[in-house]
Amino acid sequence: MAEMTRAALNNDWTTARQLLRKYLPLMQANFIESSPMPVKAVLAMMGRIEETYRLPMVQVRRDTRSKLQRIASEAGLIARAAAATAEAQGFFVYENWAAGPHKAVLHRSNCGQCSNGKARPAGHSANHARWHGPYPTLAEARQTVQTLPSVLIRSECKCI
Fold first, then answer.
1. Contact predicate 96/103, CB 8 Å
2. Which domain holds residue 38?
3. Are residue 98 and residue 134 in the same domain, yes or no?
4. φ, ψ for residue 116 (rounded to 5)?
5. With contact defined as beta carbons under 8 Å apart, do 40 and 65 qualify?
6. What is the 8-class DSSP label of residue 88?
7. C-alpha to C-alpha distance for 27 and 83, rounded to whole angstroms
8. What confidence tens digit (pLDDT) does each residue in 94-136 have?
9. Tens of pLDDT along 60-74?
């Protein structure tokens, strides 16, 4: 935005229009869902922030995430979708025992809650939770979930 504004103030309308055309789809995509969730999702895809939310905010829907990923890659902000699908083959397991029984949830590496095992879901405490992985295949990750000791609740994120 600063570069576009500078170009406009310097009467370089060609550059200003090029920048506007490049980023306009991203600006419009920021309002597909309630703000600031799309902005936070794209920043997490760029590796700038960890995608964590406090209620009433929740992560963007899967279809919105794929639209945002496509738009951000077209704008050159993140790697192309081919690289993202290669990354999607990694899996992480989130184990938590803070609130009652041990729980384990399986995530894809490109899941907004997982963020390659770096995200911290609500209520995360290093003393009461940990990430396992990455696992190269879904079968291997599922096997790990089944063999975790003391885990009473096993589930999979909707990203699976």
1. yes
2. 2-84
3. yes
4. 55, 40
5. no
6. T
7. 23
8. 888 776 778 888 888 777 666 555 555 555 666 777 888 888 8
9. 888 888 899 999 988
